[in-house]
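Section 4.2 – Deliverable D4.2 (structural model, holo form)

The reporting period included a commitment to supply a predicted holo structure for the target in complex with S-adenosylmethionine. Inputs used:
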Amino acid sequence: MLSNIVLQWLRKLGLRDVIDRLRMSWQKLTLAKQNRAFRSEYPDVNLPKDDIMYETFNLNYRKYFEGGRKTAKEILSHFQKASKKDYPDSILDWGCGPGRVIRHMPELLPSATKVVGSDFNGETIEWCQRQIPNIEFVQNALMPPIQLKNESIEWVYCISVFTHLSRDAHHAWIQEIYRILQRGGYFLMTTQGDAFINKLTASEVKMYSDDQIVIRDGVEEGRRTFSAFHPPAYIKALTRDFKVQKHIPGTGSKNQPQQDIWVLSKGG
Ligand SMILES: C[S@@+](CC[C@H](N)C(=O)[O-])C[C@H]1O[C@@H](n2cnc3c(N)ncnc32)[C@H](O)[C@@H]1O
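Output (structure tokens):
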């Protein structure tokens, strides 16, 4: 709790990103040996530059690559169970970052499936376009629209993207995803729910307990240090145009809480 309060003050003083850069240097140092071992085991895997990887995740190369593949399989399994279909005709990873998850989709899906990734970070999307084959990458702005036609995508997912957006962006992007999702299509997203309550300060817990979204701003929206926490009742109200097929509350320890998983459908 004390460290949360200190971080709040650093945010107010405009120093939150400075601390985060120091954390990145620390990870670089402490994970150097493990990361060298990964590189010799997987000499052919293209990895993004450290600062691009850290912006969306952490600096553990094995977790980025092997963990990303595991997450891709889990996402497909959620969609398959909910839709009772093996594969979609199209899939979008909105907020894909440097491809941690989506880079594995072409080998897990038939070649007929159209695989699309998008992000608002231009440097990340440029890296993906140069390094990851068989996927169409598009850049969108912080706020919609995304350059995709109405009802053009069958399965859409976003992993830890709403967790970095403002209240207005939540409403705008939920409507945008509804617009591009096919009727009968599925949408999977992750949010920072009850498992994160120990990370909140007393005033934040009060808001959260009143089913209000908790936003930590004071830094650039969409970046890793901009945070949002989501009471389940808030998400249910936000996604009222969808049908909730499944809500899996996050578990995990106090220091490593897991995000909630929501599987939603449009119609059906
Ligand atoms: C925590 S990272 C997660 C990246 C990726 N989904 C993964 O699981 O590895 C959050 C990502 O959301 C992206 N993002 C933030 N706001 C966005 C927006 N409005 N539109 C698209 N992407 C956004 C960030 O650039 C970043 O790549």
